[in-house]
Amino acid sequence: FGAVGLVAAALALANAAGGRVLTQLRDLATLKSLGFTRGQVALLLLVEHGALGLLGVVAGAVAGWGVMVLMLGSTSVAPAPMLAIVGGTALAVLAAVGVPAWRGGRTPPIPDVPSGPPRGRLSRLARLALLVRLPPALVLGTRDAFTRRMPAFLTAFGLAVPMMMITIGLGVWATLDDFADHPEQVGQHASLYVRAGKVEPAEARRIAEKDPGVAEVYPGTEVNALSPGEARSVRVRAIGASSTPYPFPVVEGRMYGRPGEAVAGQGLLDLLGVEIGDRVRLTVGGTPLIVRIVGRNVEPDQDGEVLSVGLDSLSAKDAVPPEFYALALKPGADTAEVRGRLLAESGEGLEVQEVVNPADRLAVIRVIIVALIGVLALIGLANLLTASALGLRDHAFDLAVLKAMGLTPRQVMATLVTATGLLVVLGVGAGAAAGMSVVTSLIDLQGDTSGVGAGIGRAPSALTLTIAVLTAVGTALAVALIPARRAARAQVPVTSR
Question: Model pTM?
């Protein structure tokens, strides 16, 4: 998000700086006539526009630090990463304004006077509009949209980049929703963990199985194991029996079905350098544990560095008695009510703990997604507003001719909005398609590198994406309508008449 957002911001900044350079051509020509060199003029423009960009970088860094303090309650920030981010962003800003500044330095002492409106070939879309006999305003707008191919491409690209990242953000939101709605897909089939506490383990199991809201009871234990050649231990989770295993979400391979078989998280596979089908030798309390990894499961705990086996795969001294019981509830059962009944039935002797859903631990990401979507939308709209203003400047002579020919202000406005609207639809559509094509793979890549494992990514629903696209297009057209209305109300010069 940061890298792509920086690209979008640099593009918007370059367009804005380029537009200001175009409006200052006469002033720049005057400076060149007074003896300023190309380098001096370029440096002047670089300082002028770069200072504004650097001011924005500093303001953004301070605002980001303040938001971090409010959300995380921490004031300690590593100086090296912060300086690297600020320095890299400052270089991107200077590079973005450097190109328009260099072009402004090449302004001749006597500026070229535009001899006529921009010229170009009719696009296929404009020819199609003529063929189907659309209203004149729409035909003219279709022609203007692609008269200059490069500005049209940059405008559409400036909208496609933020829309692509917005689509990816919606995919992250959909993934978190999937975590919350289907916790069993991320290893949270059980809703409660019961420990014996002040009662006997057998009594704890009896109380759990007796509760009407409990569907299954899985006895389990967790031990630390050492691997040859590794300086630290890994977690071994033994739960259920190999014949009736705990339903882990296995995304590669298969579930273990007999003693000596296991499933592992991606983090453990990476740590040990093994693959599905390999045998692993571990040491649990001085007792060797040799298992064959038959599958990879989605593992949100311990950075994925967990090996899951059946209780019958451990030696008797490690597996009996079980340390806890994982309780899978019946559909519709309330977790808090079941927990209250278990505590009451045991006379507060049991230790009953609710399972924390990964979506709850990642709730702060939703706030970040909303903030990033807002920032990206503002960047895209600012870029569109700049491009629209430059387009109106390019087509000022056209507008005068159209008004002299008798087009009403509303028709002129429709022409301008159509020209911008086609680029908006193209950019937003392309960005949404690009985002949908990479969203699941990017989320799975993040899961793979964090140890949770691939197979968790979800794309936004068709309804969500449709609403996002329509909102983006509608907002962009509303922004493009501002300069269009101003141009439609402008008076036609007498010379044009």
Answer: 0.75
